[in-house]
Specification:
Length: 160
């Protein structure tokens, strides 16, 4: 089994070790899948998040008032929040600064000097029309780069 080198680099910066799970073996990754399902069904369902800041505020409120108050799955005499507080001293701190996690990919500029990403159009100067630039995107900013020069930067628009 081979891992993507970029994934391995990120894992080393975060001090985690990737593990391979076999296809069709939910018992090997069930804890993670259940946590994802819990967040999808209890936090994201029916919620409209318009910005990262709004989503983070609502998530912090959800964690403090709902998720951390539920009984722990393995020890129903304690809450998830109580178990987290007890284990917090064993957790490694996140690196400072955090590793870069931007999406980097080629982006074709159309004839009207726009690049389409995540169903949104981002403008670039007209001299870049019909050229290929590099799109560098994180959760807040979309940058379009020509070599080492940033030719356009935009606040990331929500997916429409």
């Amino acid at each position: 089994m081979r891992f993507n080198p970029t994934l391995l680099e990120l894992c080393s910066q975060l001090c985690v070790q990737p593990r391979v799970c076999e296809v069709g073996k939910p018992n090997q990754k069930g804890g993670v899948e259940r946590a994802i399902r819990y967040m999808r069904d209890r936090f994201l369902a029916g919620r409209s998040i318009q910005s990262i800041d709004q989503g983070n505020r609502e998530l912090e409120e959800f964690l403090a008032h709902i998720a951390d108050k539920r009984p722990h799955p393995r020890d129903p005499t304690r809450t998830v929040g109580e178990v987290l507080q007890q284990e917090r001293h064993r957790l490694l701190p996140l690196p400072d600064p955090l590793p870069a996690t931007e999406l980097i990919k080629p982006a074709r500029v159309d004839k009207t000097a726009f690049v389409r990403y995540d169903s949104n159009d981002y403008s670039v100067p007209p001299q870049y029309a019909r050229q290929t630039l590099t799109l560098v995107c994180d959760d807040r900013v979309v940058r379009l780069v020509d070599g080492s020069d940033v030719v356009a930067a935009h606040q990331r628009s929500p997916v429409l």
